[in-house]
């Protein structure tokens, strides 16, 4: 049996949910991680935290909004001859809906960071996994992508886009049985992204969602609601007639 460490590259490694996912991973496995993000200081601090938990970490500063970045090359160059076991895409941004709608530049940037960038990176990741004939691609979508709602359809439509993109890739690569493509769909989670929102009973902690994300990455269903009861809530929201939905502030 192979004794090599579990090898993962993480895009948006400074995300609170992602940090907890990696901590849960490091509790169970010997890990070798490539942490990718935009802020060297924050990346190094996450790397140090994970090193103190036994993980081997390197960091890479990259611009997720630069369409010229060659992700395939980056993943190939940093593989160091070990196959990737996991490619995890976690970056995202929750914009203020009303101000963003009035500002075309911000609107385009939000759609870019929440859809275009993860989709472009996911496409490169899939090429790597197909070439290796091994590994899991996991991407953070959101329950917000399950139905367009007045309160957050900029973010929600980008997350719906990535959900559909991944569903299509799963279909395209369905003959490659050793490759898994997982859409992780957290519900409302207490992280810096939601720090401005009042917290209610539907909120989960980053630690709980991160631990569940790690479980989902291992079992690799096509779509994982985190926590699982969000699947039930979103089924209800999806079947709610528009005539009723439009009377709410959802
Ligand atoms: N929190 C929730 O309620 C919730 C619910 C459903 C889905 N999600 C999804 O789960 C994932 C993780 O979210 P989180 O709650 O852990 O968020 P978070 O702690 O706020 O982290 C957001 C991550 O995205 C990165 N990021 C944001 N804008 C960026 C930009 N323009 N360029 C490069 N990187 C950028 C941040 O990098 P810096 O550290 O450099 O800022 C950070 O790594 C996201 O995809 C999010 O959409 C979250």
Describe the structure in brief.
This protein has helices spanning 16-28, 40-51, 71-78, 97-101, 104-132, 153-172, 206-219, 230-239, 242-245; strands spanning 6-11, 31-37, 56-61, 86-89, 135-140, 179-186, 189-190, 204-205, 223-226.
What would your notes on this structure say?
The protein has a single domain (6-245), classed as NAD(P)-binding Rossmann-like Domain (Rossmann fold). It is built from 9 helices and 9 strands. The relative contact order is 0.14. By secondary structure, it is α/β, with parallel strands linked by helices. Helix 6 (153-172) links the parallel strand 5 (135-140) and strand 6 (179-186). The chain starts with 5 loop residues before the first strand and ends in a 5-residue tail after the last helix. The strands form 2 sheets. A 7-stranded parallel β-sheet has the order 3-2-1-4-5-6-9, sandwiched between helices. A two-stranded parallel ribbon has the order 7-8. The structure holds NADP nicotinamide-adenine-dinucleotide phosphate.
């Amino acid at each position: 049996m192979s004794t090599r460490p579990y090898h993962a590259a993480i895009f948006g490694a400074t995300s609170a949910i992602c940090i907890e996912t990696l901590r849960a991973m490091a509790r169970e496995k010997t890990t070798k991680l490539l942490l990718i993000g935009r802020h060297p200081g924050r990346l190094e601090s996450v790397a140090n935290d994970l090193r103190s938990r036994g993980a081997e970490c390197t960091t890479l500063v990259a611009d997720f909004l630069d369409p010229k970045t060659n992700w395939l090359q980056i993943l190939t160059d940093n593989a160091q001859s070990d196959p990737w076991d996991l490619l995890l895409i976690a970056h995202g941004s929750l914009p203020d809906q009303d101000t963003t709608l009035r500002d075309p530049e911000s609107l385009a940037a939000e759609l870019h960071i929440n859809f275009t960038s993860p989709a472009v990176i996911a496409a490169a990741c899939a090429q790597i996994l197909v070439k290796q004939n091994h590994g899991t691609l996991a991407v953070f979508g959101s329950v917000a992508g399950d139905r367009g709602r007045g309160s957050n359809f900029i973010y929600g439509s980008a997350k719906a886009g990535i959900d559909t993109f991944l569903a299509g890739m799963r279909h395209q690569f369905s003959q490659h049985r050793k490759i898994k493509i997982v859409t992780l769909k957290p519900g409302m989670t207490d992280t810096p992204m939601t720090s401005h929102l009042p917290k209610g009973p539907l909120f989960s902690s980053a630690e709980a969602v991160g631990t569940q994300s790690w479980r989902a990455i291992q079992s690799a269903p096509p779509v994982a609601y985190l926590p699982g009861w969000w699947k039930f809530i979103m089924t209800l929201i999806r079947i709610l007639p528009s005539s009723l939905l439009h009377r709410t502030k959802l």
